[in-house]
Structure to design on (997 residues):
């Protein structure tokens, strides 16, 4: 299966190249040269060279050299680079052109696509904070090889924490801004809405959420990323409450850039972590990616193609000594287990063969006899194994003499993942079959992921307006499976590899956007006015498809059928099996006693063994969970930006949206910017409203899996929709939309040449926030819930439970200067924030008369409140992300040599547990604090040849880990850390070769 991914990607790459590089390339020539700084004559790396009026271009290498294929004669080249004045040079018939560039402070600010619909805005004169990150350049020096992980190391409010372990959230890379859930950040590709993943993240620190899967976009395809850190629902759509991330794809032609990465995690060196087992190395990465662009015709058309193939091994971190709990119980050790028919089951043949060896009837003794160690029961407690392949395309073809353009972009991503679940032990009799796994087994969860997208559109001019009409289609498919598993209720005939079903999501977005910039309108009373308006139609479909029948049903293995009426099973088959009977005592009280099990009728069946139904670890999707839900969204917007004077501007935006399932909504935004000292100091601010309807995944997702208490006791837990029978029985209300208010105020300054500083304070309030409840036990609640989900079952829901406020400050400073004959770039980014639930809306739950809740009214109310507003989920949202995050870096470059050092400080966090320290619910909760941590990234690179550069380095070279998890939360030593701050994988070391020719 994994080989087929690579074959499919390579085949598609060759097909694209063959179809799109037909010989429309006549009359071309190659222009080459070197770009240097006028100040000292040193070469400048990364200068952008574009054929004027087109999107065709190239970039200089480490020696300042460039090479560009130019169609025809009489073209003009534009040379631009941050910190230098842009130059335009007519090339005539030249084939050799050297250029010098002059330093210019004003050129520090790049033009941006987001934050403003005025196409002439830079990141420093927008009314909202925008980070512009040159991904294509940073990828040569950063240790990270995935887009989301690279951005996390740079942008102060951006986060994408990889989820370890068994949960499906480990199979995607989520995106978060300002500690909000991923579903409140809008992701754009080339300015167009990107579809979300079919997966609903239920193990997410900021709450249940959908997300754009950043791993579907190859790092080599992206030229730069813009991050708008401001509420923008009125400008771009309802899911832009926390901000917008826009990725601009490469447009270069005539230059092949390739990258080979290899790396691994290693617990070595002076900073070796002595709290975990010495795992040596793991998480090995092999990755190759390439990018090449072809000119289409002689008018500046292009097609840029990217491919990526990678293989990432899994990681695992367990405490020193590993698992210390029980493996074999007394019934296993003493061969006292029987089938439903009363036949003895020989589980410990070693004890029978050596009856005088008493050690063989002990847990540790039998483990030793079978050569088992704590490592034999180790989980994959870390990152998942991932095989990944992608192809991406970006294309533009000029249309006519008026600057029109046909464009298209999109890609395919295929991925196989493998992650581990909880180990199943022989002592867990209801989910164990000696015939298949005599020492227990480790179920493993797989997913086959396919992601497809294509956008086509036309840009042109009509009646003085710039017009952009496009259609974007995207689909995400997750096909789930389990290996090394079983359904015990089917007995030895159970499949050990199962298909669990699919989650599919498709989205089609059609939009038209018009904008026009008026210079000195109203007779010159205003400096300029940009008017933009447009409309959008979006159609979404979410599907749940069932798995194979053995993955979600209960078989008949372990049941007994009576051969006659009034059959006494206890006396005639197994004297150890009795049934409960409630009796009334003489004093009127009731008590429970055990009596013989009598089956009243011939042919009657009784489940004697009580084997757990379903596939172990993750139950397959059942027919009653099958869904195919549609939604349509119609939207219209208007956006006006007015430069009243050169110093003062205001912006107004309004957006009307109609949801087929949630009705109408109107959102708005006001923004302003005032330049106190032109080109030196300015103030900016905004206020906006937002609206987010629950995603189709939140509305229709339903699933059942096995959970475990901190002591290792298994239980079946299910996620039920808010329209389910379980929700009605308990009294869980239907989901409704979230509403938000977002305010920000900040400043930008360029106090000296080469230095730029921005600081922005923000406030986000979300009303009716959707959260995930804790688990409601059927036996605890009683009544209707107990009858729906069974007494020992656990039910969870998504519900609008509270209002939440987030307050924070972002600070970003960059400084570039010369250091002798080299160049130094300093960066400092910081984020301070607080998150708090300000109001809670408890539901009026239906408690049965047969409930087992605390009788004290105060204790009962607190107990239910801590489940309804899941204490762990609330704690993760309020205190699970660091209140402070500082990123400081320095990059030095001199000729072919470069070096980078980056320090990241993560503030302390707090873990809130759903469990008490003892079985007494009046005892304290098992909470603990995680101390602040600091990590260090290092890399050095050297241009060995004109076409090849090598670099080596590491991420978290200090091998820093978070605070150890409380011992009583580790299930007898199966866990070492919880996934907060920078994660718990430790030091990662890499080597890389970059090619360009």
């Amino acid at each position: 299966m994994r080989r087929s991914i690579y074959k499919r990607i390579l085949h598609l790459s060759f097909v694209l190249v063959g179809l799109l590089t037909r010989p429309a390339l006549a009359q071309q020539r190659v222009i080459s040269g070197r770009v240097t700084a006028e100040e000292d004559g040193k070469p400048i790396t990364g200068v952008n060279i574009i054929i004027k009026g087109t999107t065709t271009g190239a970039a200089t290498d480490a020696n300042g050299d460039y090479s560009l294929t130019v169609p025809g004669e009489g073209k003009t080249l534009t040379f631009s680079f941050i910190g230098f004045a842009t130059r335009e040079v007519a090339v005539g018939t030249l084939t050799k052109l050297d250029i010098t560039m002059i330093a210019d402070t004003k050129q520090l600010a790049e033009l941006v696509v987001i934050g403003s619909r005025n196409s002439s805005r830079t990141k420093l004169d927008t009314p909202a904070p925008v980070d512009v990150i040159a991904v294509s350049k940073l990828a040569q020096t950063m240790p990270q090889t995935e887009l989301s992980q690279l951005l996390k190391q740079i942008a102060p409010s951006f986060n994408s924490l990889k989820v370890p372990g068994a949960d499906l959230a480990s199979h995607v890379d989520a995106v978060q801004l300002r500690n909000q859930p991923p579903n409140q950040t809008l992701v754009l590709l080339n300015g167009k809405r990107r579809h979300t993943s079919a997966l609903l993240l239920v193990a997410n620190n900021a709450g249940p959420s959908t997300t754009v899967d950043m791993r579907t976009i190859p790092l080599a395809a992206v030229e730069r990323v813009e991050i708008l850190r401001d509420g923008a629902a009125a400008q771009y759509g309802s899911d832009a409450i926390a901000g917008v991330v826009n990725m601009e794809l490469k447009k270069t032609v005539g230059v092949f850039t390739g990258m080979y990465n290899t790396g691994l995690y290693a617990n070595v060196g002076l900073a070796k972590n002595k709290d975990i087992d010495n795992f040596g190395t793991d998480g090995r990465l092999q990755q190759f990616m390439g990018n090449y662009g072809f000119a289409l015709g002689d008018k500046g058309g292009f097609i840029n193609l990217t491919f990526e193939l990678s293989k990432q091994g899994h990681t695992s971190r367990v405490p020193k000594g590993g698992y210390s709990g029980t493996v074999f119980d007394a019934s296993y050790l003493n061969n006292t287990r029987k089938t439903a028919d009363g036949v003895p089951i020989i589980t410990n043949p070693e004890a029978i063969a050596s009856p005088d060896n008493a050690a063989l009837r002990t847990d540790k003794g039998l483990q030793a006899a079978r050569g088992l160690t704590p490592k034999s029961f180790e989980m994959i407690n870390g990152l998942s194994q991932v095989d990944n392949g992608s192809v991406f395309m970006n294309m533009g073809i000029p249309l006519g003499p008026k600057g029109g353009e046909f464009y298209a972009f999109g890609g395919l991503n295929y991925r196989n993942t493998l992650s581990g679940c909880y180990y199943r032990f022989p002592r867990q009799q209801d989910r164990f079959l000696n015939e298949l796994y005599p020492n227990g087994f480790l179920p493993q969860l797989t997913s086959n992921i396919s992601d497809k997208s294509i956008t086509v559109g036309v840009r042109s001019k009509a009646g003085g307006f710039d017009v952009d009409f496009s259609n974007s289609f995207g689909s995400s498919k997750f096909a789930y499976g389990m290996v090394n598993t079983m359904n015990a209720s089917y007995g030895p005939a159970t499949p050990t590899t199962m298909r669990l079903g699919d989650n599919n999501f498709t989205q089609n977005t059609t939009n038209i956007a018009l904008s026009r910039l008026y210079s000195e309108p109203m007779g010159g009373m205003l400096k300029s006015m940009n008017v933009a308006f447009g409309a959008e139609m979006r159609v979404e479909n979410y599907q749940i498809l069932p798995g194979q029948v053995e993955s979600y049903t209960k078989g008949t293995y372990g049941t007994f059928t009576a051969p006659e009426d009034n059959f006494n099973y206890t006396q005639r088959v197994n004297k150890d099996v009795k049934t409960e009977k409630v009796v009334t005592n003489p004093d009127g009280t009731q008590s429970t006693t055990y009596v013989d099990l009598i089956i009243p009728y011939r042919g009657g069946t009784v489940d004697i063994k009580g084997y757990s139904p379903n596939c172990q670890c993750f139950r397959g999707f059942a027919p009653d969970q099958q869904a195919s839900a549609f939604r349509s969204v119609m939207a219209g917007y208007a956006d006006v930006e007015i430069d009243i004077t050169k110093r003062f501007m205001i912006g107004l935006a309004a957006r009307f949206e109609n949801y087929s399932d949630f009705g109408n909504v109107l959102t708005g935004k006001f923004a302003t910017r005032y330049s106190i000292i032109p080109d030196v100091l300015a103030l900016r601010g905004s206020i906006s409203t937002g609206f987010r309807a629950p995603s189709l995944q939140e509305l229709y997702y339903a699933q059942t899996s096995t959970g475990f208490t901190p002591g290792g006791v298994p239980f079946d837990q299910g996620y039920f929709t808010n329209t389910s029978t379980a929700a009605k029985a308990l009294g869980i209300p239907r989901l409704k939309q979230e509403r938000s208010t977002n305010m920000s105020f900040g400043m930008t300054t360029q106090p000296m040449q080469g230095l730029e500083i921005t600081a922005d304070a923000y406030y986000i309030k979300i009303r009716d926030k959707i959260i995930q409840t804790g688990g409601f036990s059927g036996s605890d609640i009683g009544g209707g819930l107990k009858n729906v989900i069974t007494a020992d079952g656990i039910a969870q829901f998504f519900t609008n439970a509270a209002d939440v406020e987030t307050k924070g400050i972002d600070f970003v400073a960059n400084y570039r200067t010369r250091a002798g004959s080299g160049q130094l770039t300093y960066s400092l980014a910081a984020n301070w924030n607080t998150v708090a639930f300000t109001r809670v809306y408890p539901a009026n739950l239906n408690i049965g008369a047969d409930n087992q809740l605390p009788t004290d009214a105060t204790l009962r109310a607190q107990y239910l409140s801590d489940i309804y507003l899941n204490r762990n989920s609330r704690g993760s949202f309020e205190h699970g992300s660091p209140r402070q995050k500082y990123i400081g870096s320095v990059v030095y470059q001199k000729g072919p040599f470069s070096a980078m050092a980056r320090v990241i400080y993560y503030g302390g966090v707090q873990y809130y547990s759903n469990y008490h320290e003892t079985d007494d619910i009046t005892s304290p909760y098992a909470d603990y604090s995680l101390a602040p941590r600091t990590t260090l990234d290092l890399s050095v690179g050297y241009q060995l040849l004109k076409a090849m550069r090598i670099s080596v380095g590491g991420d978290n070279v200090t091998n820093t880990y978070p605070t150890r998890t409380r011992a009583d939360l580790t299930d007898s030593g199966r866990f070492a850390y919880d996934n907060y701050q920078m994660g718990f994988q430790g030091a990662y070391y890499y080597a890389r070769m970059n090619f360009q020719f």
